[in-house]
Amino acid sequence: MPQFVHRVQSRLSFIPPAYSPWLLRAVHGVLPILLRVRLWPWLLAGVTQIEIVNGAVLAELYHQFQQGNLRFLMAFRHVEVDDPLCGLYLLSRAAPQAARREGIQLRTPLHAHFLYERGMPLWAGDWLGWALSHLGGIPIRRGRHPDWPGLRKARKMISQGSWPMAVAPEGATNGHSERVGPLEPGTAQLAFWCVEDLARMGRSEAVSVVPISIQYRYVKPVWPSLGRLLTRLERNSGLPAYVGGTGAAEAKLSELRSQY
Predict the structure, then answer these.
(1) Using one digit for the tens of pLDDT, what is the confidence trace for 86-111?
(2) Which long-range contacts (CB under 8 A, 24 or more apart) does 1-9 make?
């Protein structure tokens, strides 16, 4: 039987950033809960432990930014949907702690402007667009044609914004801590634009692109969660579900590994 489309999505409009300090404080406060709680069933385990390497380097970069000596972009690996939460932990907890240990003076809270995919509210809900906007996010609509309203806003914020910019050069998650996906050229282009704009305004700040790696690992095996996920995938695919406990899930994964 033919399928008919009953609803057509209108063109996605630009969502202007509308930073709200109170929302950032609230998110920082509930961050430990957000890291542990799983909002989607395909997220197998919460983030229970975070290790930061070279946090003092980031603290010094923020110090130079606040002194008016530097503008910089943080180019972070985009491995999982938890990356933004880990980034919030890095800025709200880890970098300030490293600054105190090193005697670096910083004005807090630390934050960053950031780019996000404009289509995210379509699958997550309008609340996400509102939240990202009020956290200072800039939407970018990906596609064959450049999203000039988003790009113009990002260009302005990288040279004139209150914080550095956070960008994911991979453009989307790939689920592999050990494998970097294809890099899009937008991050480097933003840095070049920033250099041009600073020169035009007669400003002398340096411009840096700071790579930030993110790696995940399971502290404890999550065989029961993997087993439930495999069962769900099999049922959704019309296959007979492989029912069993922890040992069954482990056996099923071993079988799949041997096939590929």
Answers:
(1) 999 999 999 999 999 999 999 999 99
(2) 9/122
* Cβ proximity of 72 and 65 under 8 Å: yes
Beta strand residue intervals within the chain, DSSP E: 70-76, 113-117, 137-140, 165-167, 206-212
Tokens in use for 82? 């938890």
Give the span between the Cα atoms of 48 and 140, in whole angstroms: 31
For 168, other C-beta atoms within 10 Å of its C-beta total: 27
User: In the Cβ-directed half-sphere of 232, how many Cα atoms lie within 13 Å?
Assistant: 9
d(CA 91, CA 94): 6
Quote the CA–CA distance of 255 and 249 in Å, as a whole number.
10
* Burial of 259 per CB tally in 10 Å (0-12, 13-18, 19+): exposed
pLDDT in tens, 242-253: 655 545 555 666
For 75-110, the DSSP string reads: EE---STTHHHHHHHIIIIIHHHHHHHHT----SS-
Q: What are phi and psi of 19, to 5 degrees?
A: -55, 130
**Is pTM, for the whole model, over 0.85?**
no
The H helix count followed by the E strand count for the chain is: 10, 5
> Is the alpha carbon torsion for 233, 239, 243, 248 positive or negative?
negative
